């Protein structure tokens, strides 16, 4: 049974999300600030976090950064329409997605199911073992580990999926909308900048000089690819 943490300092929002996610297959946990969310993730096996950005004691961005030190659990940020800068910051720090207030119940359910499906698949022993090596990057799809020149690199689930997509199709160019469909599992309606932010964050982790990447290249006007010539 997936364990979902809802973190927001507004009780009405927490209660609304509990109603939207009232499914016998889910176990729901709640927190009212970022510090409580960090402790909850440490003390419980949480499979997904829904977290507000603006909260007392510890805000959602700081809490997410602390969670990311030890966990790759999917995190969906809860944001207001006026918090565009915070959305981008959140994606840079390690958020997997965001939902804008006021919520559409169907959207909440769909995004939660999409994130859970991918995250729980990562932990399943039924996933076939696949290993990809390109240049100094090694990706093991069984253990969900990525090594860069022999050193382990911590990626979020979305970053891992994007890298796996590229490494399993070396040299193939993917348009941002196609990357979004493959990785997020849905049409990219209103999500034009999400892929670019995740790729920028991924480059910061696997490129020596992210401004002049050796591995993940831009094909102007078309999309992104991983350099086929570097395949080992």
What is the topology?
Layout: E1 3-7, H1 11-20, E2 27-31, H2 34-43, E3 48-52, H3 60-68, E4 75-79, H4 84-93, E5 97-100, H5 105-122, E6 131-134, E7 137-140, E8 145-148, E9 151-153, H6 157-167, H7 176-184, H8 194-206, E10 216-219, E11 223-226
Parallel strand pairs: 1-2, 1-3, 3-4, 4-5
Antiparallel strand pairs: 6-7, 7-8, 8-9, 10-11
Key traits:
Arc Repressor Mutant, subunit A, alpha/beta, five-stranded parallel beta sheet, 232 residues, 2 domains, Rossmann fold, 8 helices, 11 strands, single chain, four-stranded antiparallel beta sheet, 39% helix
Strand order of the largest sheet: 2-1-3-4-5
What is the architecture of the largest domain at the second tier of CATH? 3-Layer(aba) Sandwich
Radius of gyration over all CA atoms, rounded: 18 Å
Task: List the quaternary state of the chains.
Answer: single chain
The percentage of residues in β strands lies in: 15-25%
What order do the SSEs take from the amino end to the carboxyl end, as H and E? EHEHEHEHEHEEEEHHHEE
Q: Can you give the helix content as a percent range?
A: 25-40%
Sheet/helix structural class: alpha/beta
Shape annotation: globular
Could you tell me the CATH topology label of the largest domain. Rossmann fold
Q: Describe the biggest sheet?
A: 5 strands, parallel
Please give the CATH class of the largest domain: Alpha Beta
Question: For the record, what is the CATH homologous superfamily label of the largest domain?
Answer: Response regulator
Write down the domain tally: 2
Number of helix segments? Answer: 8
Amino-to-carboxy terminus distance: 40 Å
Return the average pLDDT rounded to an integer: 85
Poorly predicted residue ranges? 123-129
The counted number of beta strands is 11
